[in-house]
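Quick illustration for those who missed Monday's session on complexes.
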Amino acid sequence: MNSWEKQLETNIAEVLFDEAALSQRVREIAQQINADYQALDIDELVVVGVLRGSVVFMSDLIRQLQLPLTIDFIAISSYAKGTHTSGMVRILKDIGAPITDKHVLVIEDIVDSGLTMQHLFALLQARAPRSLKLCTLLDKPSRRQVDITPDYRGFEIPDVFVVGYGLDFADQYRQLPYIGTLKPEAYQ
Ligand code: 5GP
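Prediction with guanosine-5'-monophosphate bound:
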């Protein structure tokens, strides 16, 4: 066992969604998105990934979309863990092109309190897109502090901290092909 394998064995408590479950669910979400936007007969969907947690999900999802689309990315500051935030989200890297009058689908890894998405949606809505929707892989509705409901979501999960498939802890574990929970020791 190499040191990376040892690290996983020591720190990952449980696999919540394995590769097969993730790819099956991604296919299902893509079918919903295809049906909804094909019905509108749009000529462009701007798919905006929220860096960095959404990149693995987004790269799998867009390959299942049968729609004319372009991709873009936005990076936003996240407030410190544990802080009670009323602070605004700050844009660290903006999307590359205007979205006025465009159909925009934001791709997020996980919606927890909902504050990040609430602030981001206010920022994007101010640019007058034709439509603005949210697709998140994971949703923790029990933690919600604001009224935000994703238009598409992969899985609802309880109040546990998860890593893998793009999601990190201290910038680690993003490359795991599954989503798992961390052992409490791993936080120390
Ligand atoms: P919110 O503003 O909804 O409370 O927070 C959303 C952000 O918090 C996510 O984009 C993600 O960066 C982080 N987050 C919330 N829950 C988890 C989790 O269980 N695991 C990881 N890796 N990040 C999380």
